[in-house]
Amino acid sequence: MQDKKEKVIDHFLSKDILISEELIDTILKNNIQYELFDPHSDLLFLNDDNYSSFEKNIDWKEFEKFKVLEEKGKNKDTYKQFLDVIGGIEEKLIEAKPEVITEEKISEKENISKKETPESNVEIVFNYVEKAKKREVKDFVNYYRARFKQMEPMFRSRLSNGVISINKLNIKSINDKVSLIGLVNQIKETKNGHVIIELEDLTGVINVLISKNNAELITLSKELVLDEVIALDGTYGKDIIFSDNIYFADLSLIKELKKSPVEEYMAFIGDPHIGANEFLFEEFQNMLDWINGKISMVDKTFSVDNEALKVSIEEEKNMLSKLKYIMVSGDLIDGVGIYPNQEADLKIKDVRDQYEVFAKLISQVPTHIKIVISAGNHDSMRIAEPQPPIYKEYAKTLCELPNIINISNPGIVNIGKTEIFEGFNVLLYHGYSFVYYADVIEDIRSKGGLTRADLIMQLLLKKRHLAPAHGSTLYIPDEKDNLIITTVPDFFVTGHIHRLTAIPNYKGVSLLNCSTWMGETDFQEKVGLKPQVAKLPIANLRTREIRIIDFEK
Ligand code: D5M
Ligand code: FE
Ligand code: ZN
Q1: Are 361 and 401 a contacting pair, CB within 8 Å?
Q2: What b/e sequence results for 40-67 when a residue is b if at least 16 CB atoms lie within 10 Å of its CB, and e otherwise?
Q3: CA of 334 to the centre of ligand 3 (A)
């Protein structure tokens, strides 16, 4: 017996691993094939708790940190959660610690399930279903035709002169007033400072001149992007139109902010990036603990203007008991092979394990809260938009959770509908196209570029399209353009740029660009992106107010 024990110890020592006495006993008692154990290089100490998860790619230094904290009597929960999360731990190896159910806990549980307000209600309004089809060049042509046809009606009622198609312009006399609807093929500036737009509809192409003397229109023309559908008024001048007005599809000017008759709450999580070295495990876990009423964050509750809010514990409890919906706007995992040498930035190197950890974490959210998830460019699927719902093949546990609603990117859900209330439409879009507009639109670039999600989101709403310019995202040319913002949402929820924007009311739409749960990466440092991490915006659906809970350490 002593020999066998020494063999085990020697084996692990040769790999710079200290092994606990109990684990040696477990190994010998159960005849475990420890010789096959190929440890992670960071693993320092092996015990019953972590042994069975040795195959997972876990940051063992982090694990050790929690273990030390636990031994010092601190942070017990985090250590336990970490164990839960790394998964694969056989029940028998964990020391059973029965939960002591106090009266207080029982009443807490009852409180949460008490139905003062209707049950959470989520209906899918738009969910892209992937079609297996070989695409050809003509599909791209058809795609733009489809875009034109879908968007044209958005303009018709607004044009004063009656719309004419481009091939009919020759019946007009010089100086006649005309209105056109078309796709922006080209934008050029002349030597003299005029702007020329090449506009195309289903019948032809025409040049449109915007005079440099019309300052207002020149400013408006700076918002134009290639391939978007616009309308304009102008004067006919043979092979050219002198424009005096440009219209974007836009939102209606006045739209009253819709409010729910009942007090319910919706929270927004963006870019968790599970599996990345920089994933903020503790902050994410604290957020889950807070949702479960285990910790209070009244001292870390802010308004959208970043002012500390005086919130009482009772108010916080009330809010949590009425939290019904969580939206997750993509990049659930960091993925694998997303960019060159990503391997070095990964704590978990298998996408299934990454989703597994996300599932383990998010499963801590009580099941009466519905969680809507949709993909981002780091998730395991094609990057071309629309991205279908996250594949079950990679994220089995997650997809099987009872309260998960898995939709495409972009996707739309309606939440909170009752017999007397139509509910809110929530548009989820990861935001891959944002980087392009932050750079190409001079006004946005000069005001802060990628830090100005507010301006980017407003621009795209104005164009009623999530990625109008051909070069702003990769897309699949379907028979229908699925990136048009056909339904004006009540909530426009995005992520990708890892910064928080929360605007309760922009023309009747709440804009939310979620923060991230990943710390700054070397790449982001290089490109000068300062992420805003671990912030959870929560909207009150009765008042449409938004508050921010800040979990950043
Ligand atoms: O994107 C995280 C952030 O990094 C987001 O703000 C965009 C930015 N990013 C990503 N790739 C690029 C490139 N190629 N140029 C500039 N900025 C970029 P994530 O999707 O989480 O990696
Ligand atoms: Fe991201
Ligand atoms: Zn992203």
Answers
A1: no
A2: eeebebbebbbbbbbebbbbbebbebbb
A3: 9
Distance CA 52, CA 536 (A): 34
Supply the residue whose CA is at minimum distance from atom 6 of ligand 1.
497
288 lines ligand 1 (CB under 6 A): no
* CA atoms of 237 and 244, how far apart (whole Å): 13
> What pLDDT does 14 receive?
66
Is any atom of ligand 1 closer than 6 Å to the C-beta of 456? no
DSSP H or E stretch at residue 246: strand 240-247
Average pLDDT of span 247-275: 93
* Closest to 86 in 3D by CA, of 98, 94, 97: 94
CA of 55 to the centre of ligand 2 (A): 27
Q: 276-323 pLDDT, tens per residue? A: 999 999 999 999 999 999 999 999 999 999 999 999 999 999 999 999
Q: How far is residue 55's CA from residue 3's CA, in Å, rounded to a whole number?
A: 27
* CA atoms within 13 A of residue 258's CA, in its CB half-sphere: 16
Determine the angle formed by the axes of helices 281-291 and 76-86, rounding to 10 degrees. Answer: 100
